[in-house]
Each structure stands twice: as C-alpha cells, then as structure tokens.
Amino acid sequence: MAKNAFSGDFVHELPKGKVEGYRLWFEYLKFVLSDPSLKVQRSVYETWGDILGSDFKSWWSQHWRQLFAVPANVKIVDSVDFATQSLTDPDVLIVAIHRTGTESQRLDDVRKAMRLRFGKSTIKVAKKPRFEIVAKRNVHYPALRSMLRFLQLYAQKKTLEEATVAYMEWVLAWNEKIKGTNREPSHVPKTLERFYKEINFHLEDVKKYGKAKQSQKYNNAKNDARKFLEQGRKVVANVAKGQFPGSY
Fold it and tell me: Any idea where the domains of the chain sit in the sequence?
C-alpha cells in the first residue's frame, strides 16, 4: 500500500487518496506563517484554524473532511432516510450485496447492475474540494519535502554552502540510521549531492573564502543548488496565495 494511503470514510472521500501531499501543504504553510518577512493571504486560510499551534495528526483529524474531501462516490446505506434520499437521485444506484460467493463475483454483479441502471451515460465530473492539490507536473512529494527541509536550513545558515552541507550531513546520517528498517529513506536531491561533492573537493577554499576560487564545475553545481532553492521559494509563494504546490 502506498505511504499514507487513505481514501476516506464512506461518507467523505479524499480525491488524491494519499495524506502526504496535504501533510506537506500543512508544513509549508507552517513555515510561511513562522517567517514574518513572508506575506500570507490569511483570509484564504481562515478555515484552517491554528496551524502554528497544532501538530498535523490532531489538526488533520479535525479538518480533512471540511477542507479537502468531496462526498464519497461509494457510501454505506445506514439509515432509512439516507436510502429514501438516494432512491430519488438519478445519479445514485443502491444495491444490496449478499455475502455469499466470492468478492470478484459480487463486484461483477455490481458492474452489471450499474450498466443496467446507467447504460452508457456520460460519467459526470466529480465535485471539487475547497482546497485542491494542483500542479502542472507530476508531483514528487519526496522532492517537495527535501525542498522544505533545505529552505528551513537555508533560513538558519544563510549561505548555499552551509545549507547544502547541513542538509547532506543530515540526510546521509538519517538514511544510514534507518538502514535495515521498513522506513523509506529520505530524498537526496542530485543537485545538492553534486554541490556537496564540489564543496568537499574545494574544502580549503570554502573554509578560507566561503567558496571555491576559479572553478567552473563548482560554480555550475552552485547555480544548480540555487535553482533548487528558488524552486522551493516558488512553492512557498504559491502556498502563501492558497495553492499547493502550484507551478515551480
């Protein structure tokens, strides 16, 4: 099963079927709110509650239905009122499933019942949640998490060299620590890995001058690390406007 897989509770449904993206949105927003220099459209997030004073687990249990969910496409009929309401909805089919036979046989029966009720009707577009994860590319959550970690370290360290060294030392130590467990290793961005190697190769210059002197390879690696930082800043700017991750 995918990490943090979650589809809903048969009343509400999570469109992405995975919690990680929403967790990252929460953590990026917490980062934005904690930086006084960043302007946030607070009215957009009015319904999110106290982000800075909350941990994700407790916040999520209180807010996921209201903010990110849509009505579930498959619901368990548990009341006469709900059954009566559903019977008058032309887009709803109520079936009684007996537990005899195999699961595949019963699913086959449901498909037949749907074809009998709806025929070849065009599938309706699903409702959208109040807040939706939107991007113009495939979203790679481990990369977005590494961007956030790098932004946090850069805010502390103030230079690309120091932030890169701090990130790489942390991620290598962490991945070594969890080796042999069932935990997934943290993402190692190739751009930071290359720059880290260049920093170590020119370590004496970096210690003395804060950078390598007269090295095109070092400068290219540093430029790539800066682009990675700028990507993270674009995500931050999008979050401040109420979008995640948006275009970056």
Answer: 12-71, 80-118, 141-241
